[in-house]
Write a structure and sequence with these properties.
about 15% strand; CBS-domain; alpha/beta
């Protein structure tokens, strides 16, 4: 066991600033300040935009048109608004904090600001970017490493793990892969062939969740969400964000990944 949490430094998987995935204002399609509502609507309908920035005479952006109902277009359903502080986040906001802002503030979009200047637009759809998938992959990989370390440090014999998987009709894939490599004369640990769900099952069977100060209920609920996200990230052709509920769930899952990873790191 590590001597003291205060003496250790835990580094979560690196994220990135949302300016990397936003729509930069230099790439915007926008309405000019002197265009009519109908002209703005035509641009929104043609491009399937829910938000359309308005460029002032001096080239700045202080207003925007927004569809009344996200994803539903009609001439009478768009309205002009001023860009207010509640509509903005800093252009250097981390992806983790941006996801939390979307979830906690019940938003579909944010304008990005660099000081007082509006520099970009971030929508919920931008969270389907490959950069977000890579960030989540790194988070999950870090957790997988810690789960494996928890099992290995608890002195679980490889043959015993193979046995309990077979006796409990668990996935045969880890056993099959493990035996194939052993036959080749390669020296691998059984846990190297297990997925998150497999490792979580071992931890529950061996009551290892108690070593990190978690109840079985809390551990199981965390793994359920994490495994769901892992399956999405493993197949990036599927959209990560499909609605407001998926943003809230993503925010919750990121938090659970970081908590569980840190608990293992600090307790063993």
């Amino acid at each position: 066991m590590k001597n003291s949490v205060s003496q250790q430094t835990y580094h979560a998987a690196p994220g990135f600033a949302v300016s990397l995935i936003c729509i930069n204002k230099s790439d915007w399609i926008y309405a000019d300040y002197n265009q009519t509502k109908e002209q703005a609507f035509d641009k929104m309908q043609k491009n399937r935009f829910d938000v359309l920035p308005v460029r002032e005479a001096d080239g700045t952006f202080k207003k925007y048109f927004k569809a009344k109902e996200w994803g539903n277009f009609g001439v009478n359903d768009i309205k002009m608004f001023e860009i207010k502080p509640k509509d903005c986040i800093d252009h250097e906001t981390s992806i983790k904090d941006a996801v939390k802002a979307f979830a906690k503030r019940n938003r579909n979009f944010f304008f990005l600001k660099n000081g007082k200047e509006v520099t970009g637009l971030l929508t919920a759809a931008n969270l389907n970017s490959k950069h977000v998938y890579i960030y989540l992959y790194n988070l999950i990989s870090q957790l997988e490493f810690e789960l494996g370390r928890l099992i290995n440090i608890s002195e679980n014999d490889d043959n015993e793990l193979v046995r309990i998987f077979e006796e409990n009709n668990k996935s045969v894939k880890p056993n099959t892969r493990y035996r194939r490599e052993i036959k080749k004369g390669l020296d691998h640990k059984f846990i190297e062939f297990a997925y998150i769900g497999d490792m979580a099952w071992i931890i529950r069977q061996k009551n290892l969740h108690r070593k990190i100060g978690m109840t079985a209920k809390d551990f199981d609920s965390s793994i359920k969400l994490i495994n769901k996200l892992r399956n999405i990230v493993a197949h990036p052709v599927n959209s990560l964000i499909k609605g407001k509920n998926s943003i809230v769930e993503l925010d919750m899952t990121i938090a659970k990944i970081e908590v569980l990873t840190a608990k293992i790191y600090f307790h063993i």
